[in-house]
Amino acid sequence: MSGPAEYDEIGRTYTVTRREDPRIAAAIWAALGHAGSVLNVGAGAGAYEPHDRDVLALDPSEVMIAQRPEGAAPVMRGRAEALPFREGSFDAVMAILSDHHWEDRAAGFAEMRRVARHRVVVLNIDPADFGRFWFAAEYLPSSMELVPPRYRQPGTWERELRWLLGGELRIEPVPIPHDCADGFFGAYWRRPEMLLDERVRNGISVFSHCEAADVAEAVERLRADLGSGAWHERHGDLLALDELDLGYKLVIAEFG
User: Fold this and answer.
1) Mean of pLDDT over the chain
2) Based on the number of CB atoms within 10 Å of its own CB, is 6 exposed (0-12), middle (13-18) or buried (19 or more)?
């Protein structure tokens, strides 16, 4: 888990590698339906905020807020677990690649439901699927320990969402394109050499949570495997794929 203090530290160069991927953005905006007013929880630098809606952004980190571009939606500081709004204040509430940073996921989901009139939209990886990405499973196994124990059981995240959000809930897989513009952890499944770049790793919170020695060892092992051809022997089939399902899900809860 992480919070504003972490992103005040590691978020200083966030926008170097983290930006909106248009294909993922299209899926999110479609999921928002006809919502005219939207709250973006854990908004960070403003990626994936629709430009044709009345959007309010909320984030706990001043460093992340400072990186929002000119013309971005208005923003205020705040935490998902205690949204400073009355019940039903927004048509829709969204959280994009954000809920794994909250101190209390259940409280954050419950708060999103409380302030949403018509729908909640969440995009993230199902924590039980974290090990689908070869880098986590093969090179940085200590990263698997970042998943809270209760979420390691398949179905736990989905059951929690259904219980806390209620309504008519749909969960749709979001395959990650091979050239994903947004440099989150799973984005480099077909571009292993990118993970050797410290600037890329600096935009991914997983690396800040693992021991520096573990990360250094993982990077050197990957460098050696790319040089020897060992990575290609194990994963060369990935190079023929345009997209890959790594467990990222788009969750849409509709009410009334």
Assistant:
1) 92
2) middle
Residue 231 tokens read as 């990575």
Specify the long-range contacts of residues 219-226, CB closer than 8 Å, at least 24 apart: 219/139, 219/195, 221/139, 222/135, 222/139, 222/192, 222/195, 222/196, 223/196, 226/192, 226/193, 226/196
3-state secondary structure of 9: helix
Residue 6 in tokens: 């972490």
Domain boundaries, the chain: 4-254
Distance CA 61, CA 128 (A): 27
Residue 201 has pLDDT above 60, yes or no: yes
Among residues 215, 206, 189, 176, which one has the least CA distance to residue 134? 189
Token pair listed for 94: 């969204």
Whether 75 shows a pLDDT value over 90: the answer reads yes
**DSSP single-letter state for residue 57:** E
The CATH code belonging to domain 4-254 is 3.40.50.150
Q: How far apart are CA 93 and CA 112, in angstroms?
A: 6
Residue 19, Ramachandran bin (φ over 0: left; ψ between -120 and 50: alpha; else beta): beta
223, HSE (Cβ side, Cα atoms, 13 Å): 9
Instruction: State the Cα–Cα distance between residues 157 and 126, nearest whole angstrom.
Output: 6
| pLDDT tens, position by position, 78-111 | 999 999 999 999 999 999 999 988 999 889 999 9
pLDDT of 170 over the 70 cut: yes
